[in-house]
Specification:
Strand order of the largest sheet: 1-2
Shape: globular
Order of helices and strands: HHHHHHEHHHHHHHE
Helix content: over 70%
Distance between the termini: 16 Å
Length: 306
């Protein structure tokens, strides 16, 4: 079935922003679900596999309800890459890490995600972002890194093993965003994540049952798990993949530079973390680089193919 290819760049940017708002709760909610090393709740394995199983079940029901056709044979490879990154890689690495780092600490690591996504997308789609675009993207990422160093204070931004897990998670997320955006250009965006989740069910469901908790868990932890299962793992991708497809992966991905700061704002009431002038100042600066980068040209190579 052929998809409408009329571009909607402005709407794509707004949908991308909606997806970022939904995703910005992922790390705080995951922290709420895992608890801390001193007060553990749900395990990282269960959160990652359980959220995939819940969202996979919802996806199966939704695909049947809308009578979605099976993807074309050539699309299954990209669906597999999307599943590896969005269903397994990012959720598993971040869930395992979140018990050992605070939400604010993990949020600043997200600063590398937009640039990683843009770099992968530019190579895959044979696009040539202008020098001005790369300067804006690099400046935004650099601001996030500087913010992390300043906020770390006397303890410094040590490379804990949990930081390595977070970095790995960001890499898998970037790959899944690019593959999902390519699929969204020729099939409904909401079906992209649904097929990836359904494809993953034979692994995610048994793994969720195997890692299910055998001791009482606080209701707040279950609330965090419910959010990452329904919103982070499912509904958020409906808006995000459509936004990437309509607005352009390289450009829309830069909106995600706002996600660390949105996560920090949410962490204040949810986890009791502090919001200071430094955070607000860097948030405004990063938003300025995103706004400027949105206006920079992105060129398509003449020999590029869809």
């Amino acid at each position: 079935m052929n998809m409408e290819r009329t571009p909607h760049p402005s709407l794509g940017l707004w949908l991308g922003f909606l997806g970022v708002v939904i995703f910005s709760l992922t790390l705080p909610m995951t922290r709420l679900a895992t608890g801390s090393a001193l007060d553990p709740q749900l395990s990282g394995w269960f959160i990652a596999m359980g959220r995939a199983a819940v969202a996979g079940g919802l996806s199966a029901v939704w695909l049947l309800a809308v009578r979605a056709p099976l993807p074309a044979r050539e699309d299954w490879r990209l669906i597999g890459w999307t599943a590896l990154g969005a269903v397994f890689g990012f959720p598993l690495f971040t869930s395992l890490a979140m018990r050992h780092v605070e939400s604010v600490h993990a949020s600043v690591m997200l600063g590398i995600l937009p640039l990683s996504t843009a770099a992968i997308a530019a190579r895959v789609h044979r696009q040539r972002p202008s020098l001005g675009f790369w300067l804006c993207a690099s400046a935004g990422s650099a601001l996030v890194v500087v913010f992390a160093l300043l906020r770390s204070g006397a303890s410094g931004l040590s490379l804990h093993w949990a930081d390595l897990l977070l970095l790995a998670g960001m890499g898998w997320a970037a790959l899944s965003y690019v593959s999902g955006a390519r699929l969204s250009a020729r099939m409904p965006a909401e079906q992209v994540i649904c097929w990836a989740l359904v494809l993953s069910l034979p692994l995610s469901l048994p793994a969720a049952v195997w890692s299910s908790p055998d001791s009482p868990i606080r209701w707040s932890a279950w609330c965090g798990f419910a959010y990452v299962s329904v919103f982070s793992m499912w509904i958020g991708f409906f808006a995000w993949y459509r936004g990437l497809a309509w607005g352009g992966t390289v450009r829309v991905s830069q909106i995600q530079q706002l996600q660390p700061f949105l996560s920090m704002l949410i962490s204040v009431p949810l986890l009791g973390e502090q919001l200071d002038v430094l955070t607000l100042g860097f948030s405004v600066a990063v938003m300025a680089t995103v706004a400027l980068g949105k206006k920079m040209p992105i060129h398509q190579e003449s020999n590029a193919t869809n």
